[in-house]
């Protein structure tokens, strides 16, 4: 990340001062006036629930940006950031190591002291930001699980903490939950219930990933070159999940032997290559049925199944309902 030749911008120039107050709970995402500046343009939408504030950022940076926030107040939220497009490096008061997120990654941070600096290069941006009340978040954590209990103690004692200072990859299921949050078709109080439930599901998936990473922390660290290969493989699967793949072909394409590919992919992404592929197919199929109203036979082919019956069986095993019923 290039930190030179940056334009420095204060948060107050992006987030209106009214957002620091507690607004009346909204059921719909509210679009704010687009921001057009020398450094680029940005559109913002937000939705406020009693304990949760969601903000969606989309835009284009034409220059390197240094975004700073320094205040005399105390932060009372755990902030989760999901990068759907773009990348960022961040420094937070109380956290010694720099945090970085790239496209398809997520993380969370609690920093009671409002003193943070973010650096972004010229790029396209699409970010979902969740602010969850610290005490409400603490109540979600399990005292019997060591990692969660440690996190809860830090939150209750107002100690700065982050989910991880290493890469945390979005899973197909996480992408599906984000899609559901941003495209909920219900209205009124039912919409509020669904979005809050989906936010909690996203928190649960994030915590589950962190707990599993903590349990696997004794594994040998994967070198940077191989990590790049695994991330390239992950991106390739997202683009070609409907195609036929084999470990042999993938190993040859990305310069990894089959044993290293199987072991390393599971260490980084928490699942096997083919389970990851299966989840991509099923999540895409679910969205096609739900949002586009596509027919089952059509969806079956679009996600790489030659036999619609095999697709229907896999879909029901994944979601507990056959695709025709789900579509209706």
Automatic annotation (TrEMBL):
It comes from Chryseolinea serpens. It comes from the Bacteria. Pfam families: HTH_18 (PF12833). The keyword Transport does not apply. Residues 231-328 form the HTH araC/xylS-type domain. InterPro entries: Homeodomain-like_sf, HTH_AraC, PchR_regulatory_protein, Tscrpt_reg_AraC-type_HTH. This is AraC-type DNA-binding protein. One of its GO terms (molecular function) is DNA-binding transcription factor activity. Keywords: DNA-binding, Transcription, Transcription regulation. Coiled coil: none annotated.
């Amino acid at each position: 990340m290039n930190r030179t030749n940056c334009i420095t911008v204060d948060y107050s120039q992006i987030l209106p001062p009214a957002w620091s107050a507690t607004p009346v709970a909204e059921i719909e995402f509210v679009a704010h006036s687009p921001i057009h500046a020398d450094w680029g343009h940005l559109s913002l939408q937000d939705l406020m629930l009693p304990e949760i504030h969601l903000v969606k950022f989309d835009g284009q940076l034409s220059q390197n940006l240094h975004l700073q926030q320094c205040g005399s107040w105390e932060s009372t939220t755990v902030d989760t950031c999901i990068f759907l497009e773009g990348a960022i490096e961040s420094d937070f008061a109380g956290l010694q190591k720099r945090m970085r997120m790239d496209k398809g990654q997520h993380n969370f941070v609690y920093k009671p002291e409002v003193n943070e600096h973010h650096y972004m290069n010229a790029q396209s941006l699409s970010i979902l930001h969740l602010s969850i009340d610290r005490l409400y978040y603490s109540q979600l954590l399990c005292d019997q699980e060591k990692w969660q209990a440690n996190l809860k103690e830090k939150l209750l004692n107002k100690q700065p903490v982050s989910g991880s200072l290493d890469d945390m990859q979005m899973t197909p299921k996480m992408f599906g939950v984000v899609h559901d949050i941003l495209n909920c078709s219900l209205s009124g109080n039912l919409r509020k219930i669904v979005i809050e439930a989906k936010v909690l599901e996203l928190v649960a998936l994030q915590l589950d990933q962190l707990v599993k990473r903590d349990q696997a922390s004794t594994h040998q660290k994967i070198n940077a070159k191989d990590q790049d290969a695994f991330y390239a493989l992950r991106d390739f699967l997202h683009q070609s999940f409907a195609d036929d793949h084999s470990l042999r072909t993938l190993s040859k394409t990305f310069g990894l032997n089959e044993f290293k590919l199987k072991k390393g992919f599971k260490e980084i992404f928490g699942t096997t290559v083919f389970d990851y592929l299966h989840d991509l197919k099923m999540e895409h199929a679910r969205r096609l049925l739900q949002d586009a109203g596509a027919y089952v036979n059509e969806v079956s082919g679009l996600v790489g199944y030659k036999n619609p019956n095999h697709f229907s069986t896999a879909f029901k095993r994944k979601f507990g309902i056959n695709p025709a019923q789900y579509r209706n």
